[in-house]
Design brief:
By secondary structure, the chain is an all-alpha fold. It folds into two domains: 93 residues, no CATH class; 67 residues, Arc Repressor Mutant, subunit A (Orthogonal Bundle), CATH 1.10.10. Helix content is 69%, strand content 0%. It comes from Sulfurifustis variabilis. GO terms for molecular function: DNA binding; sigma factor activity.
Length: 184
Amino acid sequence: MEGASTGQTLGQFLASVEHRAYRFALYELWDREAALDAVQDSMLRLTERYADRPSAEWPAIFFTILRNRATDAKRWRAWRRVRGLLRGDRYGEEDDPLASIPSPVDGPDAGAEARQQRERIEEALRALPARQRQVFLLREWQGLTAVETAQVLGCSVGAVKQHHFRALKALRAKLSEVWHGETR
């Protein structure tokens, strides 16, 4: 990964990966606060447990931690929903009245066209199977190699390549109007 050169400090690595890690977590959890929590917890865990590892290993370790944290958050959210249904709670998380309040990131200064494009991209990512989405985000947005992605996801390099190809094909089909037929 481009940001993980030898001699890089852990602080520099975390600063360089922060935004991309947030996007990865957001597209796994679809919840801004949960994504921020997952990134923060993952950064803390990397700092506490793996700071002494060579900087070249940090990207794969960090995204493994982040992926596991996102999985835990999804399980916890599902458990809370089930527990709420069993107790007879009236509102689920989808009915949270605070969820409709716009984030400062999505404030009035953001262009309508950019917002629409982001929504189309998010919709296309949401439609991908989870493993294809994970591979796409790790390869394209995080810059991990196929080998690093396989290590993070605990699968073969061949599976990573297959999921990556399928994700790209599906995204190109869904987003052709956004990029006017551009191919990669």
